[in-house]
Design brief:
heterodimer, A: about 375 residues, alpha+beta, Cytochrome-c3 Hydrogenase, chain B, three-stranded antiparallel β-sheet, 15 helices, 10 strands, about 45% helix, B: about 150 residues, alpha/beta, two-stranded parallel sheet, about 30% strand, globular
């Protein structure tokens, strides 16, 4: 039977497909897994189910337009992705951004990070068999979406950053609502710890699972919480601060175990750090313009511009090559998810099939970010 | 390490390297054939120690294709950009997946979208596009009638 030929390798190992439509992949990703009994021998990702060639599209979009295609890549970090793009354009045009706009940007970035990590926390719980966290997470994330909706007019693809500042001023309710949210969310964080972090079953599912060494993580190009869980400092907000991160006090949480539980702990600490950043800024939003005066049509000078930001998933880079025209000559997006995914095979080898979702869950993959 | 020292080190490895300091980081332009020997030494030499390959991409310049590698040294907190010039009709360059494992997937992307052939790559196949796709979409002469975005 042809079926058997496809399903097993010559050594009698089983080959199975996970996805492209599978709840554990959180999107359309296809993994081909080679198994010996229950042990994973190889994981091979098959990508491209939602490849839209955003890089090619950007070559025919103006410097104001291309920014918003990145909201559609990592849709959970849309503010931060847009932030990287406007930083690259501002680098090229040497635009001075007003202080108020910088603070608004950081506030939005950190709220996005909280929303993204909260959603990840819920999805992670669901991956390892706990459905309750998912509902808790969506309840809290909804509050952030409401705040975003008032100021940006959108709940998912906000498109709020523009070269020179932000698109609109803050909504009058913004400060009050953010303060209410932070106070409310702090109490929920403790609840999260009782519910999942300290849970013996959860720890059993994630401790010692998907271990990667610091040297391997670096070699695979991992960034963000995945690399920090191996004890390597890699936060772009610290290494090359942008828009005033250098003036803020926050810790870069590090773990050394390099397993799924360490990655989980790093993200939980990052949530608290993001709240602390919001605390520092929310009462100190400077008065003034929210947008610098820029020309209607932007033309970057001939040259190359690279900007880096820390998204919820790691280092996101925008590489613009300009020939001086109205549109970029070439754009490349360095996506954190794509490079973190490269390490999946290494992490999963030798583990049991049931551990695969516990490993994938802590990589926090967003598929459009990988496929672009 | 200052840019001058870095330039001296790289010139020792590849005497024909051309440097450009107009951008944010030091940019080194080399020929594709020199890339593997530079890559090996730039990663393992403890004074250079560029252990983190954080961006790999290809650019079509119509006359040639250049591979662009962004490298960072975590220890020395230094960044260098290496551009390797490839022939456009037959773009070939050595794969560096043994030096930086991230290159394996990133090189597949460059092959898929730009048609650069990586020599000694373990698994050089299309990554995003289907296996029977014709042409290299990110090249400047690629025509896509379906794509309606035109400025």
């Amino acid at each position: 039977m042809q079926y058997e030929e496809v399903a097993t390798t010559q050594d009698g190992n089983l080959v199975i497909n996970v996805g492209p439509q599978h709840p554990a992949t959180h999107g359309v990703m296809h993994l081909v897994i080679t198994l010996n009994g229950e042990t994973i021998l190889k994981v091979e990702p098959h990508l491209g189910y939602i490849h839209r060639s955003i890089e090619k599209m950007c070559e025919s979009l103006s410097y104001r337009q291309f920014i918003y295609s990145t909201s559609r890549m990592d849709y959970l970090s849309s503010h931060i992705n847009n932030h990287a793009c406007v930083l690259a354009v501002e680098k090229g045009l040497q635009i001075e951004v007003p202080e108020r706009a910088k603070v608004i940007r950081i506030l939005m970035d950190e709220l996005t990070r909280v929303a993204s990590h909260v959603l990840w926390w819920g999805a992670m719980g669901m991956d390892v068999g706990a459905l309750t966290p998912f509902f808790h997470a969506f309840r809290e994330r909804e509050l952030i979406n409401d705040i975003m909706e008032e100021t940006c007019g959108a709940r998912l693809t906000m498109n709020y950053m523009v070269p020179g500042g932000v698109m609109a001023d803050l909504h009058p309710n913004f400060v009050r609502k953010v303060k209410e949210f932070v106070a409310f969310f702090r109490t929920k964080m403790d609840e999260y710890d009782t519910l999942v972090t300290d849970n013996v079953i959860f720890q059993g599912r994630t401790k010692g699972v998907g271990v990667i060494s610091a040297a391997d993580a670096i070699s695979y190009g991992c960034t963000g919480p995945v690399l920090r869980a191996c004890g390597v400092k890699c936060d772009i907000r610290k290494l090359s601060p942008y828009d005033g991160y250098e003036n803020l006090k926050f810790e870069e949480p590090l773990e050394t175990a390099g397993d799924s539980y360490a990655r989980y702990l790093v993200r939980m600490c990052e949530l608290r750090e993001s709240l602390s950043i919001i605390d520092q800024l929310i009462d100190n939003i400077p008065e003034g313009e929210f947008q610098a005066k820029t020309k209607a049509v932007l033309k970057l000078p001939k040259g190359e511009f690279y900007s880096r930001v820390e998204t919820a998933r790691g280092e996101f880079g925008v590489y613009i090559i300009s020939e001086g025209g109205l549109t970029p000559y070439r754009i490349h997006f360095r996506s954190p998810g794509f490079n973190n995914l490269a390490a999946l095979d290494h992490m999963a080898r030798g583990q049991k099939i049931g551990d695969l979702v516990a490993i994938m869950g802590t990589l926090d993959l967003v598929i459009p970010d990988i496929d672009r | 390490m200052s840019n001058e020292e870095l330039k001296a080190k790289i010139t020792e490895i590849i005497p024909t390297a051309v440097f450009d300091e107009t951008g944010e980081w030091l940019t080194v332009s080399i020929e594709a054939v020199d890339w593997l020997s530079l890559a090996q030494q730039i990663c393992t030499n403890t004074e250079l120690d560029f252990d983190f390959l954080f961006s790999v991409t290809a650019v079509d310049w119509k006359t040639h294709i250049s591979m662009v590698y962004h490298l960072r040294s975590l220890k020395h907190e230094q960044i260098v950009v290496v551009k390797a010039k490839c022939d456009r009709t037959m773009p070939e360059i050595e794969s560096v997946y043994k030096i930086w494992k991230t290159a394996e997937l990133n090189e597949r992307e460059a092959y898929d979208l730009m048609g650069v052939v990586f020599l000694n790559h373990p698994d050089l196949r299309r990554l995003f596009l289907t296996d029977d796709w014709e042409g290299w979409p990110l090249r400047k002469d690629y025509v896509d009638e379906v794509n309606m975005i035109k400025l």
